[in-house]
Amino acid sequence: MGQSKLRWGILGCAGIAIRSVIPGIQQSQRGIVTAIASRDEAKAKQTAEMLGIPKAYGSYEALLADDDIDAVYIPLPNNMHKEWTIRAAEAGKHVLCEKPFSMDAAEAAEMVAACDKHGVKLAEAFMYRHHPRYARIQEIIASGEIGAIRGIHGTFTFNSSANTTNFRNDQAMGGGALYDIGVYPISAARMLLGREPEAATVHAFFSPEHGGVDMMASGLLEFSGGVALTFDCAMWAAGRNTLEVLGTEGRIELPSAFVCSTDAPSVFYVTVKGNRREEQLEPVNQYSLQSDEMAAAVLDGTPARFAPNDAVLNMRVLDACLESARTRSRISIPNG
């Protein structure tokens, strides 16, 4: 490609794009935001002006036709991820797709196949995985310092219940707490344990006031060796985002596991045999790191740490969680 910067196009003016991903790309070492598109051209132009983006388009198709764009970020509602990932691939654009990757594992597999067919890179936008603290946590686990892992507990909750018109309250658009934030502790447990869960049991509060979506869900994922992830996620509860890894000799606690400040040091705690220490990492922008890893994959051919098929596996677990919540039963997860 003969260039030092990955040129990004943004499909949509979602809040996550405006608040976090676009600034992250703009602050990255190897990314620039070239264009943004919206079905409302005035909105696209307004957002472009606000964020200093050179081009604005009144359709997603027009952005995909722009030869000055190498990769697209897709923050559209969940039910639109498959269509626009495939259309981007057909246009020869690399894709960073917002989580949850798709509506189900079957859609995810189609998206991966399309990108593979057209020779473009594909990644799911789990920004937290790119923060160096997770590499440090994996190092601590591998060292045996906290012993054998006995369990993981994750939380991600916030209260958006007053906004009843948000797409997250629409089942057809992929609404609900499991889709929106339950995917975080699920993906974190899979990453830290390095294997797939065997079964899911989830209990949820489906709110008639919010389109019948799950506004709160509590779950158990069974991994081999008697290890489990317990988690809860909510869009109608007090805010928190935490992760605890419990071992036979100690534990690791992350008070801000998935969303963290870009201005303050990242802190987590390690307790071994009653002795608690603080581990501190310098401030970073995990959205910038996510962008730079995509740039390395596209421009340098550097293998991505998280293969596209990881998104299919994560959706397979989410499918089981949703089925369990709706049927109030334990669901086995196929891993073949």
Automatic annotation (TrEMBL):
It comes from the Bacteria. The keyword tRNA processing does not apply. The keyword Oxidoreductase applies. Pfam families: GFO_IDH_MocA (PF01408), GFO_IDH_MocA_C3 (PF22725). Residues 134-253 form the GFO/IDH/MocA-like oxidoreductase domain. GO terms for molecular function: nucleotide binding; oxidoreductase activity. Residues 6-124 form the Gfo/Idh/MocA-like oxidoreductase N-terminal domain. Keywords: Oxidoreductase. Belongs to the Gfo/Idh/MocA family. PANTHER family: OXIDOREDUCTASES, TRANS-1,2-DIHYDROBENZENE-1,2-DIOL DEHYDROGENASE. This is Gfo/Idh/MocA family oxidoreductase. The lineage of its organism: Bacteria, Bacillati, Bacillota, Bacilli, Bacillales.
